[in-house]
Design goal:
single chain; Nucleotidyltransferase, domain 5; GIY-YIG endonuclease; 4 domains; five-stranded mixed β-sheet; five-stranded antiparallel β-sheet; 18 helices
C-alpha cells in the first residue's frame, strides 16, 4: 500500500471521559508507509484547568497551556494535514473519538479511515501477552524517552508501525482498515469507498435490492461500523444478504431511542423480507405464569418459545434474561412468594424462604393454594401495571445544536421530533409543535420503558 498515506496521531487530554474532558496536546506524523513526510505538534488550551495527576503524568502544566491556541484555531490544519490519510493510533478509538468530538462541537463532521496499532500488533505478534505501547516498545527495542507527551508517543507509534509493516503487516493493515471485508466479495454496486463514506453516527439504515425495494432495516449507534459488519460476516446468511444489496440509504436520528422507535416503526411499515426471516425479537425473554399440578400459580423466567406451552401465559417481556429474573426475585420478596413455585427451582420439602419466615408454606402445602394464588395474582397485576403518564423524553440530537424529543401520552408513544438546544427545551407547547406523529405500539412502549430504566436519556419533562 505504498500509495496510501498514514496520519499517525497521539493526543494528551485532561482525562478519559469524552463528555467532560478536552485535548491539551496533539501530535500528527504523516507517513507514506516507508518514511515520515511531515510532522506537526501543538499544545492546546482546553479552556479549563488540568489536574495535578495529569500534569504529573504528562509534564504539561496549566502555565504551559495559558498561551496555547484553542482547538478551533488549529482545526483547519488538522483537517488539511490528515486529508486522504488513514488515521493511525495506538488504541485508535480513544484518539479518534476525542478528535471527532472536538470537531463536532464546531459543527464539523470529521471522518477518516482508521487503523489501530494495538489490533495490528495482536495480528502480527499474537504470541505477546501485552500490547500496550510501553511493553511493545520494550519488546521491539524502541526508545521512547518522551513517554506521555504527544510527539514522543506518536514517534514511538511510528517506529512500531514500521516494524509491524516489515514483519509482513501489509495485508493485515488492509483487513483492519476495511473491517475484514474483501473487496472481491462485495456486490457490484457497492464499493469499499461507498461503505467508508457512510456516517459514523446513530440512526436507521435501509438496504435496498436492484428493484429499489427495502429488504432490510436496521439501527445502530454507528451506521458505518454496523453496515461494514454486515458485509464482513462470512456466513451463508450474511453472504446471501450482501449479494442482494444494490443500494444503502439511512436516516440519522442522533438519539438511540429515536433510532429504536423508528426502526420498529419502519419494519412494521415496510415488512422487509430479510427482517421477516430473521424475526429478531427486541424482547426475547419473558416471565410466564401457569397453574402447576398442585393447583398453585407458578411464575417462571425464560426464553420465549415459538409455541407457548398449553396453560402458559406471558406476564411481561424483557430484552435480557437477567432483567426477568431480577423482577421475579423482587416479586418473591415483595409478595412473600414461594421459591419452589417460582422459577425452575422446584425442590422437595421447604424452600429456603420458608425456613427464614419469608414464605407462608406453599412449598410444603401448609399454605392453601387459594390464599397463595390471590397473592401471586396480585404480584402479576403489579408487574403488568402500565404508566399512563404524559411526558417528553429529551435526548441527543443529530447535531450538537439540537435535541431530540419523544412524546408520550397516556403511556403511549405518539411521535418524535427535533428542537434547537438553546430554544425552549422546558416549554411543552414549543416541544409539542416539533412532533411528527407516529403510531404507538406495545413494542414502542416497551422500548421507552427499557430506555428510561437504563437511564440513557438526557431528561424527562412531564406535561
Amino acid at each position: 500500500p505504498m500509495a496510501r498515506k498514514y496520519a499517525i496521531i497521539d493526543i494528551e487530554t485532561t482525562g478519559g471521559l469524552l463528555k467532560r474532558d478536552k485535548i491539551i496536546e496533539i501530535a500528527i506524523v504523516i507517513h507514506d508507509g516507508g518514511q515520515i513526510i511531515e510532522r506537526f505538534e501543538t499544545l492546546l488550551n482546553p479552556g479549563r484547568s488540568v489536574s495535578r495527576q495529569i500534569s504529573m503524568l504528562t509534564g504539561i502544566t496549566n502555565e504551559m497551556l495559558v498561551d496555547a491556541p484553542p482547538f478551533y484555531e488549529v482545526a483547519r490544519q488538522i483537517v488539511e494535514k490528515t486529508e486522504g490519510c488513514v488515521f493511525v493510533a495506538h488504541n485508535v478509538r480513544f484518539d479518534y473519538t476525542f478528535i471527532k468530538r472536538a470537531f463536532e462541537s464546531l459543527g464539523y463532521n470529521y471522518s477518516r479511515k482508521q487503523l489501530c496499532t494495538v489490533r495490528l500488533s495482536r495480528m502480527i505478534t499474537p504470541q505477546l501477552r501485552r500490547h500496550g505501547l510501553g511493553p511493545l516498545c520494550h519488546y521491539h527495542g524502541i526508545d521512547n524517552s518522551a513517554r506521555h507527551r504527544a510527539m514522543g508517543d506518536a514517534l514511538a507509534t511510528v517506529q512500531l508501525f514500521e516494524k509491524l509493516i516489515n514483519l509482513g503487516g501489509v495485508d493485515a493493515i488492509d483487513e483492519i482498515i476495511n473491517y475484514g471485508i474483501k473487496a472481491s466479495r462485495l456486490p457490484a454496486s457497492i464499493s469499499l469507498e461507498k461503505l467508508h463514506s457512510l456516517p459514523e453516527a446513530c440512526g436507521v439504515y435501509y438496504l435496498h435490492n436492484e428493484d429499489n425495494e427495502v429488504i432490510y432495516v436496521g439501527k445502530s449507534i454507528n451506521i458505518k461500523k454496523r453496515i461494514m459488519q454486515h458485509f464482513a460476516e462470512n456466513t451463508a446468511k450474511a453472504n446471501k444478504l450482501a449479494q442482494r444489496v444494490h443500494d444503502i440509504t439511512y436516516e440519522l436520528t442522533g438519539s438511540e431511542l429515536v433510532a429504536l422507535l423508528l426502526e420498529e416503526h419502519e419494519i412494521k411499515r415496510l415488512q422487509p423480507d430479510v427482517n421477516r426471516q430473521l424475526r429478531r425479537k427486541l424482547f426475547p425473554f419473558a416471565l410466564y405464569h401457569f397453574i402447576d399440578e398442585d393447583g398453585y400459580v407458578h411464575i417462571l423466567a425464560e426464553k420465549i418459545k415459538k409455541n407457548t406451552p398449553a396453560g402458559y401465559q406471558i406476564i411481561k417481556e424483557y430484552p435480557k434474561l437477567a432483567y426477568a429474573r431480577g423482577h421475579l426475585e423482587g416479586l418473591i420478596e415483595e409478595f412473600q412468594l414461594c421459591q419452589h413455585r417460582c422459577g425452575n427451582k422446584t425442590g422437595v420439602g421447604h424452600c429456603f424462604n420458608f425456613k427464614i419466615g419469608q414464605c407462608h408454606g406453599a412449598c410444603n402445602g401448609s399454605e392453601h393454594s387459594v390464599q397463595y394464588n390471590s397473592r401471586a395474582l396480585e404480584a402479576i397485576a403489579y408487574l403488568q401495571r402500565t404508566v399512563k403518564d404524559d411526558f417528553f423524553i429529551i435526548d441527543a440530537g443529530r447535531e450538537q445544536t439540537e435535541k431530540s424529543v419523544v412524546m408520550i401520552e397516556k403511556g403511549q408513544v405518539t411521535g418524535y421530533g427535533y428542537v434547537d438546544s438553546d430554544a425552549g427545551v422546558n416549554n411543552a407547547a414549543y416541544l409539542r409543535d416539533s412532533i411528527k406523529e407516529m403510531q404507538g405500539s406495545r413494542d414502542a412502549q416497551r422500548i421507552v420503558h427499557w430506555y428510561i430504566k437504563e437511564k440513557k436519556m438526557e431528561k424527562i419533562l412531564r406535561f
